[in-house]
Give the backbone structure.
Amino acid sequence: MDSQKLLFSFLCLPLLLILLKGLEAEGHLQREHKKLFVFGDSYVDSGNIRKGFANSWKVPYGTTFPGKPVGRFSDGRVFSDYIARYLGLKSPIPYRLRKLMPQHLKYGMNFAFGGTGVFDTFAKAPNMTTQIHLFQQLIQHKLYSPSDLTNSVALVSVAGNDYTHFAATNGSAQGFPSFIASVVNQTATNLLSIQKLGVKKIVVDGVQPLGCLPQSTTTSFFQQCNSTLNNLVVLHNNLLHQAVTKLNDKTKGQSTFIILDLFNSFMSVLDNPSTYNIKDPRKPCCVGVSSEYKCGSVGENNVQKYKVCDKPNTSFYWDLVHPSQAGWNAVYNKLQTTGALQQLRN
């Protein structure tokens, strides 16, 4: 009987070793699971901007998802949520909540703050350089390992807050082209900084058509895009393309820098709304009752000073600046037909 047990153990040992090795490999894969690190502004902020600093923490923001305001500048999901979905991840935790929800650190982290830019803006929040510095601190504290970073994706959003700030602080029309060049140069510097920290796949948004935002089309009753603004955006995106091409040449395949074309994705939806189940492509869903109020505003005695459309799920824009969840979903669906998104999974 003892000899039979010995023989059985001998025969089973290789199988046991194979199983153990498989489990070890599985654990290794889990430790090196792809993560998403997000930098930028309100187009990707999932809750970093603090209460009291923005209407994104007020009703009716968040009514579609998750059912209450949580800081997202939309009635529901924002762009970073869709990129996380594409990667098969839960949305990365906002930096502000990193100590409260440590179990979500495995999906990455969101450092984006609504209203910010690559330079300082009106927002009292970290600009992109500071956001990257916060990321660097976490790496120095070994919250993320080198293998975590190698297998991860960085998403960088530059949605135009720098330009809003420039225009509002007596920036001249003649000075815009050189300022655009400085924004793109700083963006390229930031992309390189993220790469030097160990992230090998970095994706940056091209700027969306600022001239088609409801705040730019109010004078035409949300019918006509501002071509002057859109021409400036085209300049930004052309310079960004040149800068990213140089970065890819410089790193010689060691890293991949990718541009997501938000300009043409937005225009595709705005020009062909029915294709994406959008019925109100240019009119915002949530607006103030007058020009002195905006979406989420309340007056004395908590009186509601905004109005919301009947069907947010068919509106492209949620407020004067931000897409609705349906709008972001439409943009995401358009981007899936391009090759840029597919590079994130390779």
